[in-house]
Amino acid sequence: MMMGTGPLEVQMFAAIEREDLNDNLKVLTYADPLPLYHAADALLHPSEREGFSLVCAEAMCAGISGSPNPNRWPRPEMILENQTGQTTPINLNAFASAALKFLALGHQRLDEMGRAAAAHVRENFTFDRQYRQTLSLYRKLANRNLAN
Questions:
Q1: Are 64 and 95 members of one domain?
Q2: Are residues 126 and 57 in the same domain?
Q3: pLDDT tens, 6-60?
Q4: Beta bridge partners of 27
Q5: How far is the C-alpha of 89 from the C-alpha of 71, rounded, in Å?
Q6: Could you tell me if 55 and 20 lie in one domain?
Q7: Can you spell out the DSSP letters for 35-55?
Q8: Structural domain containing residue 16
């Protein structure tokens, strides 16, 4: 099951049709993701353009271990390798291979990583902490620009 839309939506549906995956893959438009998070074994998120992945943080908070793309991942502290999930290359073949290996870890290991992911996000990515860190960065940048 997949959910969401994006700039490659037409190509994605064409590929699903071309590969005859209509009976095996359901694509949902955007809706409340919480029921899907609770039904999922893992989040496989091959985004190239996100800075902070809200989708990944939401899934982790719901107890889902993740496998996002590390190449554009500016917050490496979000995924603690083999503890809260695993990072994978964005290259389609490498991503698919790594995703299958990740899923092959089995329900028990994915559940363990999911619980660790939920605790990690709830502890380290709270609104108050993100607000303080962003405000601190802006103050540093403003002071740096005033000094120049």
A1: yes
A2: yes
A3: 787 888 888 888 888 888 888 887 778 888 888 888 888 777 666 677 888 888 8
A4: 2
A5: 7
A6: no
A7: HHHHH-SEEEE--SS-SS-HH
A8: 1-31
70 touches 76 (CB < 8 A): yes
Number of domains in the chain: 2
76-101 confidence digits (pLDDT tens): 577 888 898 888 777 777 887 888 88
Residue type, 14: A
Contacts 24+ apart (CB under 8 A), 111-115: 111/63, 113/65, 113/82, 113/83, 113/84, 113/85, 114/42, 114/60, 114/63, 114/64, 114/65, 115/63
Q: Are residues 27 and 48 in the same domain?
A: no
Look up residue 64 and give its two tokens.
Answer: 């889902």
Residues 46 and 106 in one domain: yes
Q: Which of 109, 87, 36 is nearest to 27 (CA)?
A: 36
pTM for this structure?
0.68
How far is Cα of residue 128 from the mean position of the Cα atoms in its chain? 21
